[in-house]
Amino acid sequence: MDNPVLVEVTRGPLVESRHRGAVSVVDADGGVLMSLGDVDLPVFPRSAVKALQILPMVHSGAAERLGLTDAEIALAVSSHFGEPAHVATARAMLEKARCDVGCLECGAHWPMDPAAARALAAAGGTPSALHNNCSGKHAGFLCLACDLGEDPKGYVRADHRVQGIVRASLEDLTGASHTPDVQAVDGCSIPTYAVPLPSLAYGFAKFGTGVGLSPDCKRAAARIRRAAAAHPFMVAGTGHFDTVLMEALAERAFVKTGAEGVYCAALPGSGLGIALKCDDGASRAAQAVLAALILRFLELDGPERATVEALARPRLTNWNGIEVGEIRTTDALVTPL
């Protein structure tokens, strides 16, 4: 089946491009509130599920025993921009686990924040694994491995105990089997599993409400949400959609980008989980869809609404600052429930 057009990008009075996709909104009892497109087609959530992947590190007590701060826990669920505060926080996490940058197996890349990348280059520096947008999550994996008394080497492999625990957490939350036939390798080298959008949305509804979780796991999920709300900069970085949205909504929404047009979110007060995928992998389209869904499913006050509306319908400008068009969601997202 062809997925519906969810987003249009205009230039002047005309539509220049269209983005198709699928959306699933589910409550913590598994009830479906919205289903658009081929939601049963498995997708790789990748970074969108970092909070679910890091839940065992908090749930096990490792975070408390190692004295991890809320800023460090927020970084553990992040796709950060490699800004100085991100790098320093990742290094601090490693020190608490008695590890160093050489223990990270995520690979190195230049900071995703242009200013941070320019500053590093101007200083004659080169990027390390600390600048990798996944270094916080990997530092969290090392914290779990060391707390368990496991050899951290090879913690990215599917057969390592850490990844076995992470896989079990994902299966428990989503209800979907994470088996070798849907397994691939993520950009940061850990296993990633393709699952249907309703399973992802269900997992985030449970993560946001604690429904169906053990008391300890429920408390761990709440701590992760509080940490992200208190330190949204750590979850992404300067000006990023995730940071801006969570700065505005605090604990009312936990949102996380994935890759290739995937987004997931938990709306704790509404008891809902959201998962979506834009077919062509366009992040800016996925962001507009998520913002539109939050406008639909959350009661927002004036300042909150203004922020989310701007994210749902961003204006496009050229290099001279002239407005040339906009990104807008379609009527497919306002169909009756």
Automatic annotation (TrEMBL):
Question: What Pfam families is this protein classified in?
Answer: Asparaginase_II
Q: Which InterPro entries does its entry note? A: Asparaginase_II
Recorded protein name is Asparaginase
- List the lineage, top down: Bacteria, Pseudomonadati, Pseudomonadota, Alphaproteobacteria, Hyphomicrobiales
